[in-house]
Amino acid sequence: MSNVWSDTRRSFSDFDFEVVEARRVSDAQRDELLQLFEANYREASPTFLDKSLHTLRHVAIARLQGDPVGFGMAESRVIELPRLGDQPVTLAGLCCIAPDFRRRGLFGELERLASEATPMPESNRRLLCGRMAHPAAFRQMARLPGALPAPGIRPTQWQQEVGSAIAQVYGVHDFEPATFVCIGAGRPIGYPRIEFDVEPHEWQVFEPVDRSRGDALLAMVWLPTGPPGW
Predict the structure, then answer these.
(1) CATH-assigned architecture of domain 16-223
(2) Of all residues in the chain, what percent carry a pLDDT higher than 70?
(3) How confident is the model at residue 4 (pLDDT cuts 50, 70, 90)?
(4) What would the 3-class secondary structure string for 30-89 be?
(5) pTM exceeding 0.85
(6) CA 141, CA 194: separation in Å to the nearest integer?
(7) Rounded Cα–Cα distance for residues 192 and 187 (Å)
(8) DSSP 227
(9) In the chain, what are the domain boundaries?
(10) CA distance 110 to 90
């Protein structure tokens, strides 16, 4: 099955990877994750980091010569979705890479390791989900056919129902199904420390996102294709 994170051109032989059950992260590991979070975001919220560790099942950590250089949170589970019943779903979460190790494919490898840590039943499709706070984070998924939300297209009632169900699994404070905006709890999650080149059309679906209150955009795509009528 297609994997949005796969990249066979990459080599990770220099790195050591560890996959940890998020709820069992030690205090020392949590401090390492927070340091990487703060290296990636201004006003990084420790509360958001801790909530993520209690929402998603696994965190993958990359190290180089013992030093942490990146982490990614994710989980795959079977979820009962509206009008579909039980479906395999991959929930992507927070991923942070140390500045000197970006653009080496670590983001994708860490998310892949965390999402594949739980064995899943065989299926001809799965739903890939994530919460995005910036167009650059959504870019890779947005290029896939059928990715939601899409500029100028209002999600169907069915898509809104599924989006609402996924937002609930993420523990979102509040959800706006027509825009797929995950409404924050009133304080920022953090602001990227790196500047990205973003095209005007990429900002369109992010217009209702208010980062000052901790908003994010829920993103979803079926791999390889959606169910009939989707």
Answers:
(1) 3-Layer(aba) Sandwich (3.40)
(2) 96
(3) low
(4) HHHHHHHHHHHEECCCHHHHHHHHHHCCEEEEEEECCEEEEEEEEEEEEEEECCCEEEEE
(5) yes
(6) 20
(7) 15
(8) P
(9) 16-223
(10) 14
